Amino acid sequence: MEYTAKAIADILDGEVIGNPRTKVNTIAKIQEAHEGALSFLANPMYENYLYTTKASIVLVNKDFKPKDKVKATLIKVDDAYKAFATLVEIYQNFKQTEKTGIEEFAFIDPSAQIGKQVYIGSFSYIGKNVKIGNNVKIYPQVYIGDDVLIDDNTTIYPGVKIYHQTKIGKNCIIHSGTIIGSDGFGFAPQKDGTYKKIQQIGNVIIEDNVEIGANTVIDRATLGSTVIKKGVKLDNLIQIAHNVEIGENTVMAAQSGVSGSTKLGKNCMIGGQVGFVGHIQVADYTKVGAQAGVSKNVNRKGTVLMGSPAFEIRDFQRSYVGFKHLPDLIKKINELERQITKLEQLENLKKELEQLKKELIYQTNS
User: Fold this and answer.
1) S-S: 2 plus which of 25, 116, 317, 354, CB 3.0-4.6 Å?
2) What is d(CA 120, CA 127) in angstroms, rounded to the nearest whole number?
3) Radius of gyration of the chain (CA)
4) Is pTM, for the whole model, over 0.85?
């Protein structure tokens, strides 16, 4: 795949500064790029690389003004980072369209329905009554259980396990090692101290345009559905428990966990290693800082939380100032205690002197 600067500018509605016939056939970081590569500059911290890069074309913001001579052809766009993301998507889609067909050693049950332009890799297993849409990519060693529905243009990377009755929408990306539809953690305590398993007979529904990172686990519902709504982006190593609902366009960073029956609103931003207790509701547009523990409902839209247990960021910041100075405060308290002790000792001496004085006066008068 090879594009000229003019062709790229036309796609991005950008302006070419330099030779419009400059060609590129790959994408690279600005500090590592070579001739024939396209890169971008969005963060001012990397500006120095612009003057030394070997990239043939670099995307920059429209308001960018170089401080030195630039060898590369520039394409000025409204937002260089977003423009680069658009080109990467085009590049990736082009590469993936190369894979079609069913490889040897893939097992497909005769009752399964397979769409057009589908790729199914070796050692994958497609169960009974599975429905796979058009342009779906299923890489090697993927397990797809009975009655699963996978809609058009979804990509499932190697080693993914999708349990029975799961529904996956269009344009989803599921990365390696992810498990969807495993049993929720439900056990009833018995009188003898043992636990009886509560059968998990629900399913998982993943709507359109969802991306799920590697080694993430999404449990099936006890009853009903665990739901990941459209546009959600989950990082690697995330645990989503049974009957959880993640609202539209919510993003969640790695190693976070959501306990059973908790509902997160739309457009929330969740940092890494955040934990949510079960059976709570979190309002739309909530932001939660890394390693926070959310233990109660969040009712106000746009709330920003930090800490464990989590509370609003302004209160957290004020509390943190006090916590940060706690060693100094402890020293001051210890010093005050010493001074109080000295004052108490002086007061006792004063009382003893007064008593001696009285005794001397009494003896003199006697």
Assistant:
1) 25
2) 13
3) 32
4) no
Q: What is the pLDDT of residue 46?
A: 94
What is the CB neighbour count within 10 angstroms for residue 264? Answer: 27
Given CA atoms 309, 211, 24, 77 in this order, what sign does their dihedral have?
Answer: negative
The catalytically annotated residue of 164, 242, 279, 325 is 242
- Asked if 147 and 126 count as a contact pair (C-beta separation under 8 A), the reply is no
Residue type, 323: F
Look up residue 317 and give its two tokens: 């910041």
Q: pLDDT band at residue 1, thresholds of 50, 70 and 90?
A: low
> Which stretch of 195-199, 258-262, 271-275, 325-329 has the lowest confidence by average pLDDT?
325-329
Helix axes 5-12, 80-96, angle to 10 degrees: 110
**How many Å apart are CA 262 and CA 219, to the nearest integer?**
13
For residue 164, indicate whether it is catalytic: no
Statement: residue 248 has pLDDT above 60 = yes
> What is the pLDDT at residue 240?
98
User: Is-contact 114 97, C-beta < 8 A?
Assistant: no
pLDDT of 349 reads 85
Sign of CA pseudo-dihedral 49, 55, 58, 64: positive
Tell me: pLDDT of 94 over 80. Answer: no
Distance between CA atoms of residues 282 and 308, nearest Å: 16
| Separation of first and last alpha carbons in the chain | 120
Average of per-residue pLDDT across 321-334: 82
| Cross-strand pairs, 23 | 4
298 DSSP 8-state letter: B
What share of the chain in percent tops pLDDT 70? Answer: 98
Report DSSP state, residue 45. G
Measured CA to CA in angstroms, residue 204 lies from 4, 179, 180, 255 at distances of 44, 11, 7, 20
Q: For position 269, what pLDDT does the model report?
A: 98
Residue 160, C-beta contacts closer than 8 angstroms, at least 6 positions apart = 139, 142, 143, 174, 175, 176, 177, 178, 179, 180
Spatial neighbors of 88 by CB under 8 A, at least 6 apart, are: 27
Our measurement of the distance from residue 141's CA atom to the centroid of its chain's CA atoms, rounded to an integer in Å, reads 26
In sign, the C-alpha dihedral spanning 120, 210, 152, 204 is positive
